[in-house]
Amino acid sequence: MRPNAQSYQMFQRVTISESDVYYLLSNERRRETLTILWEFDDELTLRSLSEQIASIESETTPAPRPLRESVYNALHQTHLPKLATYGLVEYDPDRKLVRSNPESRSLARYMDTMAPVGISWGEYYRALGIFGLFTVVASLTSLPVFAAVDPLVFASGALALFALSTVYQLVGTLSRSLHSMTTLLGRYLP
C-alpha cells in the first residue's frame, strides 16, 4: 500500500484514500500512537511512546518488560515508518523521536467510535436527536401510546440522554488522557 499522488495547491500535502485510512487504522498500535501524539504538541521519544502503549495494552503501569520491548520494536520497525510514509508523523529513526503532523488530525473522525456499539459519536447523537424528535412529534400528533405521555416528558428525556451521553464521552476522553499523562509522568517522577 502506497500513499496516493500529492495534491498541489498553495501548500503541498499528501492525500490518503479512504481504503488506505482504514488500512492504517486497522492496527491498534497505530491508532494508539496517533491518539497519544495528538495529546502532546511536542515530540516524544520512541521509548516514552512505547511505554505508554504497552501500559494501555497491559492495563498496568509500568507494563511488563517483554511487552514494552515488543511494542518498542514493532513501532520502530513497522508502525512509525508506515505512518511517516503516509505523512502522518515525523519520525527520526536515528534520534528515536516522533511527532504528529497536523494532517494526521483528519483521521480522528475515523477513530471517533463508541467501542461496544461500533458507530461514531456523531452518528449516535444524530440517531438520538431523530429519536427524540420522533417521540415529541408522535406525542403532539396524538399517535396511540405516545399520546398518553406529555411531549415535554419526551423532550426532557431526550435532553437527559444527550446530557448523560456527553458526560459519558467526556469522562472516557478525560480518563484516557489522564492515563497517558500519568504513564508519561511516572517515567520521570520517583
From TrEMBL:
The DUF7344 domain covers which part of the protein?
A: 24-99
Give the organism the record lists: Halapricum desulfuricans
Annotated TM spans: 124-146, 152-171
Keyword set for this entry?
Answer: Membrane, Transmembrane, Transmembrane helix
A Pfam family annotated for this chain is DUF7344
**What's the name of the protein?**
Putative trancriptional regulator, ArsR family
Respond yes or no to whether keyword Transmembrane is given for this record.
yes
Source organism superkingdom: Archaea
The record's section on InterPro entries has: DUF7344
